[in-house]
Amino acid sequence: MDHSGHGMDMNMDLPPFTLTRGLEWSADPFFLIGCLLGLALYAWGVVRLRRRGDSWPVSRMILWTVGVLTIALVMCTKLNDYGMAMFSVHMVQHMVISMLSPILLLLGAPVTLALRALPVAARGRKGPRELLLMLLHSRYMKIVTHPAFTIPLFIASLYGLYFTPVFDFLMESKTGHIAMMVHFLAVGLVFFWPIMGVDPGPHRPGYVMRMLELFAGMPFHAFFGIALMMASEPMIGTYRNPPASLGIDALTDQQAAGGIAWAFSEIPSVLVLIALVFQWYATEKRQARRTDRAADRDGDRELQAYNAYLASLNTRGQ
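Now predict its structure.
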């Protein structure tokens, strides 16, 4: 099997995996450039806001930065090299880039930052900001952020990829491997965006419905992991014959991969639930403040009307 210098040919000489070896620097150029670009553009947006006197939450900057760094962690270190030969390491990459990185990136509110930082185009013209708004309000975006699309896509990305020849085909080349990792990241973003993203979007259900959407997808991750752990033989062709230098058994490594997939399904659930509770609380506080301001403006007319209604009922009863 040819891996174009990125797969088995390169991994034949890999020593047995340790965390220290896995965290050694080994940058994939595509993801290194992408991560640096993501950090630079976000920083540009924040600086632009600050220069005109607007603020931007430090917490969002931290979340975005950590989100980008999690991508770099699994794609710009030897974890990426070991992931081509070890199913368990690949599963760590998959879980991080599809379930942890998207949550952190979305909490960084990059779309909101872009809408605030990009200049408004001259009348009659369409600049980057106008094009972004058109995309946000497009029919395409309504479809790809709807749970009828995101939940099946989230599930199919597991079962339709690993349990068919598609995975082995993509792992045959560096381009295929990069495309697969980009796909994992994109699926995570569109799945979690309507649920807990702070950016504006076409699909924004109530908080209870968001929790239901979250729990609709998570069990399938657990079932996928259990299927890998319970299998009596290696199921993925790419990892059926690991390099002898690694000193691992293919079936044992697959069971470890299944355990990682099963355990990781709990982590994003907790993170998203915490984020949802905080967002729900913040929304209720904003609503209460708006109600108080409205009461101050109209002399609490709504309460007075309600008291008058109670008084009228009392008069009728006499």
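The chain is about 75% helix and 0% strand.
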